[in-house]
Design goal:
203 residues; alpha+beta; 5-stranded mixed β-sheet; 7 helices; flat
Length: 203
């Protein structure tokens, strides 16, 4: 159907790509003077991923999104990779001066004895002056974008883990233990490198 969310998403995909270009430019400019920024990247959610997320349901069986074209917050998402754990706060401060924050959340295991995915997620409003030409002619365009901040160690763990760790429930106990060991090692290396950096800077 021409008016189903997926078809409409594909029709406006080019506008989201233009927004990515605009956000990449402003974030790169604003972080140019911030030390230890390894890379900045933005992407538009793949139509297939949008379709899956738009059909997500709640535990009671109801649809999670009544208007996925407007409500899904990460149709456009960015990522900033920094060297050290203490750099996350500095980058967050600059970005919160640039964009109006809707929410922020530190993604980390709830159990203090567990190790795994870590990332700092911000949801920001899309500034009017960064919206590309033609944006206002479309109905139900998203109002927010997502931006993650990770250290190099967080990223080095998260990307292979995403590829290897979510292949289903048939992963053996031994493999899960190995993944847990890698996660704990990455966590320890991340904090230790940050401590070393801050100690050297005092010298």
């Amino acid at each position: 159907m021409a008016n189903d969310p997926l078809s409409l998403y594909r029709q406006r995909y080019h506008l989201l790509c233009s927004l990515v270009d605009n956000l990449t430019e402003v974030v790169s400019s604003d972080l140019a003077a911030v030390p230890h920024v390894d890379r900045i990247s933005f992407r538009v959610k793949d139509p297939g991923s949008f379709f899956v997320k738009s059909n997500a349901t709640l535990p009671d069986g109801s649809m999670k999104y009544s208007n996925p074209l407007r409500e899904i917050e990460d149709q456009v998402a960015g990522r900033v990779i920094v060297f050290y754990f203490s750099d996350i706060q500095a980058v967050s401060g600059v970005l919160e001066d640039t964009f109006r924050r809707v929410e922020s959340e530190a993604k980390e295991p709830e159990d203090e004895s567990s190790f795994g995915y870590e990332s700092y997620h911000h949801i920001f409003l899309i500034p009017e002056h960064h919206k590309p030409d033609g944006w206002e002619r479309e109905d139900d365009m998203p109002v927010t974008f997502e931006l993650q901040i990770r250290t190099l160690f967080m990223h080095a763990w998260a990307e292979p883990q995403h590829d290897l760790g979510y292949k289903g429930d048939d992963i053996s106990r031994e493999v899960r233990r190995k993944l847990a060991w890698v996660a704990a090692s990455a966590w320890g290396a991340d904090r230790t490198m940050d401590e070393i950096y801050r100690e050297i800077m005092k010298m």
